[in-house]
Amino acid sequence: MNYEKVIIGNATLYHGDCMDVLPTLDKVDSVITDPPYGIALKNNDIDGHRRAGGYEVLGDLDQTVGIQALEMFKREVVIAFASPFKPWPGVWRNLIVWDKGGAVGGGGDISTCLKRSWELIQVARNGKMNGARAESVWHFPITPADTADHICAKPVSLMCALIERFTHHKQTILDPFMGSGTTGVAAMQMGRSFVGIEREQKYFDIACQRIEQAQKQADFFIAPAVKQEQQPLI
Q1: pLDDT in tens, 11-37
Q2: Could you read off the pLDDT of 125-147 as tens digits, one per residue?
Q3: N or C: which end of the chain has fewer CB within 10 A?
């Protein structure tokens, strides 16, 4: 099986299945990712109030792919978004409640279920945190426009806050479920190196464009070169 590898400055992006690519990678310092929650997320527009068009998330029928990927990291700092109804198993040092604000949120039949406007962020093996001690409820409002490219996209400001709190300058961050590349954009803004993996071509292309633009903005002097190569997995 082949994968596509794109290098944009200090970001290395892979178009392929993370379970194929991960065994080939060098060591990273931390993993910040949003795996498929295993909740079979899709657009059930029963009353016409949600976005036009349907959507589904690949690999979201159960937690298998997320658990398999997360279990590959035993020593690194791991920061993983999760459904509050199906958190990832294991020992976690910190649990963060991300308050998304009232502009978004789902959660079943709107006549019987409260709008779920928050998500869980699980943090494992972090060392001494940067900055003063913070609360575990983080308020980063998001709007439907923020998820126009990808239904599961997160605010860049939230990803920057996670990177600033739990990682250090010039460290390498990995996102095995890169999506439209928000973690990579934040990594560029925060002076970190980034490795991202995405198997859907549409989102991979969007991620490349966003991260290249973020890299250009971060690099005050020289715009980074982009090169592509095809490599067989071993």
Answers
A1: 999 999 999 999 999 999 999 999 999
A2: 999 999 999 999 999 999 887 77
A3: C
